[in-house]
Design a protein that fits this description.
Elements: H1 3-20, H2 34-56, H3 65-77, H4 80-84, H5 86-95, H6 101-124, H7 130-158, H8 164-181, H9 183-187, H10 198-219
Helix pairs in contact: 1-2, 1-3, 1-5, 2-3, 2-7, 6-7, 6-10, 7-8, 8-10
């Protein structure tokens, strides 16, 4: 298992615990304590957002064991009451596991977009106007961060396990980001032999990923009768 898979497992756990706290069919006494549930859900949401924000700020898009530890530390700092109730939360989630592969895949896609964008910027840096690259790169990275956190918050609010509402909430952000990311390629100088540099190649990959993601998420699920 690579570090990103471990991070996705962590985010899955935070999401499962958040939703489990609102499931009054579970036996844990936690769900009967409305004040504690409200506090824990608030902390779990803040922890997940801090985790994701720390992950996508990885230098040069390199996500390693050190950055994984930083993500976990950032999340735990937002969850003092959650840490105290860690075993009770684990027992609550363990009563009935509710995995969601579609949401996990979506979150992975958004995180990967940010990491690939950082890698592209790092590869472009030696060959382009640094000021222009930094301005454009920061804009795209901020937009991707906003899209990721909006996806997470919308999924929590929807509470139905479906990716439809969070996708709908962020797809226009992704389309706007695609138009900004496409400007990366134009920043790089033309190669004399016609070969694309690594920075240009990575930048095109980011644009293509954004385009495919926005198309897929706009299309939505196929009708049941097809």
């Amino acid at each position: 298992m690579n570090e990103l898979d471990k991070a996705l497992d962590d985010l899955d756990g935070l999401r499962e615990a958040f939703h489990a706290l609102s499931d009054d069919q579970r036996a844990s006494p936690l769900v009967a304590n409305a004040k504690l549930v409200k506090k824990l859900r608030h902390e779990l949401a803040a922890g997940a957002d801090a985790y994701a924000a720390t992950l996508i700020s990885s230098t040069r898009g390199e996500f390693d064991a050190k950055r994984l530890r930083k993500c976990r530390t950032a999340a735990l700092a937002q969850m003092p009451v959650g840490v105290v109730n860690q075993k009770r939360l684990a027992a609550l989630v363990g009563e009935r596991r509710v995995s969601n592969a579609e949401v996990r895949d979506d979150v992975q896609q958004l995180l990967t977009l940010s990491l690939h964008c950082r890698a592209a910027l790092a590869a472009l840096a030696p060959t382009v106007d640094r000021r222009a690259a930094d301005a454009l790169g920061n804009k795209v990275l901020v937009e991707l961060r906003e899209a990721t956190l909006l996806y997470l918050s919308t999924e929590r609010e929807a509470g139905n396990g479906s990716p439809d509402k969070p996708r709908e909430a962020v797809v226009e952000h992704l389309k706007k980001t695609e138009s900004h990311a496409s400007e990366f390629v134009s920043l790089a100088p033309e190669s004399g032999d016609g070969a694309a540099s690594l920075g240009v190649t990575l930048s095109r990959d980011v644009v293509n990923m954004l385009h495919k993601t926005s198309l897929d998420w706009t299309a939505g699920p196929l009708p049941d009768h097809l």
